[in-house]
Design a protein that fits this description.
This protein is of the alpha+beta class and 195 residues long. The chain is built from 7 helices and 7 strands, in the order E-H-H-H-E-E-H-H-E-H-E-H-E-E.
């Protein structure tokens, strides 16, 4: 289901739900290595970014049980500071700066790899890994949105869990490499619309 708008109370609720479900998500394990802080970090992350994604015209999809949250966000480089509402809660975490490192790297790779004929949205799937079937249904919705609104779709992940499924959906691997000096393998796949 596509989320078009959320009130502050709904953003708070969604952030709380996601913080409980995503403590083992690879991206958040990288962004917040301290397990005891991760739940609070995830909640602060979503409370900060959801309003920004909505304001920028990015696409947010979620299933009816709040098991999978999928974001189609612009790949442009983010500023290297937190500002505005929610910034204080997020920047209190010592590892919060890694968000800029990760997003800057992603923006650079997207610029190198993505075709230049259409705008680009980078798809991130936030799921605990036990609802891959639901995640793949939301991917189908994301593909339909890319067709309808004419943007390229790139999948970004620090896990290989859904790579084969994405290949079946006509995505192709553009980049797969260990991320920085971590044990995480970053995979970037782009939807092949040439067929």
């Amino acid at each position: 289901m596509l989320i078009r708008d959320l009130r502050e109370k709904e953003i708070k609720k969604l952030s709380e739900i996601m913080s409980q479900k995503l403590t083992e998500h690879r991206l958040f394990k990288f962004l917040c290595p301290k397990e005891e802080e991760r739940r609070d970090f995830i909640e602060a992350y979503f409370r900060y970014y959801i309003p920004r994604w909505l304001t920028r015209g990015d696409y947010l999809l979620i299933d009816e049980n709040y098991d999978v949250f999928l974001v189609l966000a612009g790949a442009r480089r983010s500023l290297h500071k937190f500002s505005g509402k929610g910034a204080k809660k997020l920047k209190k975490f010592s590892s919060a700066h890694t968000i800029f490192f990760y997003r800057g790297n992603l923006a650079y790779l997207a610029q190198l790899l993505a075709p230049r004929n259409k705008r680009l949205k980078v798809m991130t799937i936030f799921s605990d890994g036990t609802h891959d079937d639901v995640a793949l249904e939301l991917v189908d919705e994301a593909v339909a949105l890319s067709d309808k609104y004419g943007f390229n779709l790139m999948y970004d992940s620090l896990t290989r869990r859904l790579v084969n499924n994405m290949l079946e959906k006509n995505f192709i691997i553009m980049y797969q490499k260990m991320f920085a000096s971590t044990g995480y393998v970053q995979t970037l796949m782009i939807l092949n619309n040439d067929d």
